């Protein structure tokens, strides 16, 4: 069995096109990495904002005394306050 001859060297334009395609590939991979990184950072930022909102809501003033024991509060629209139902 004979060994096949090595391939002929590339012509100038083939070589130029080959290296240009390699350069395009590197550019596309770099840009994809940047886009994916930006997506991840945006998702992290949104998650942090959501967590911060949840913490703000959790740290709001809580009802105390009778209102806390009553369990159900009514909102007075005129005074913008919560009040507990009267006990009989």
From TrEMBL:
InterPro entries: Ribosomal_mL52
A matching Pfam family: MRPL52
Source organism, top-level taxon: Eukaryota
GO BP terms: mitochondrial translation
Keywords: Ribonucleoprotein, Ribosomal protein
GO (cellular component) term, any one: mitochondrial large ribosomal subunit
GO molecular function: structural constituent of ribosome
Protein name: 39S ribosomal protein L52
Origin species: Tropilaelaps mercedesae
